[in-house]
Amino acid sequence: MKDYKYIITDRGYNYLPEPYKFVSFNEFIQAISNNKIYDVEFRQIKNTNKNILLNTNIFYMDIVSYAVCIDNNNIFYYKIGCEHDFESENIGNCYNKLTCKKCGIVQNVDSSD
Hints:
Blueprint: E1 20-22, H1 25-34, E2 39-47, E3 52-60, E4 65-71, E5 74-80, E6 86-92, E7 95-100, E8 106-110
Antiparallel strand pairs: 1-5, 2-3, 3-4, 4-5, 6-7, 7-8
């Protein structure tokens, strides 16, 4: 599996990679629809409140990942990865290099499109 720099900590198979936060169904669907998915991983995440395992699929993408956790009749959506703080550097005509000050991930953007 690719090394995803925006994931700060991964405590193993029974946990979500960190950092993560709850998101809405709409944000999840928009992200999945608009981004290339590089890897999908199945995990059984520990739910400490109920002492059960949640069936979870993690969708790994370029600069952030998303997870879907299922607990009986409940479905939870999570955004996984750094809350990026990008610094922009112009490296050519309409071509910019964005570097996150927190995790160091780099994204090149052609703003002429």
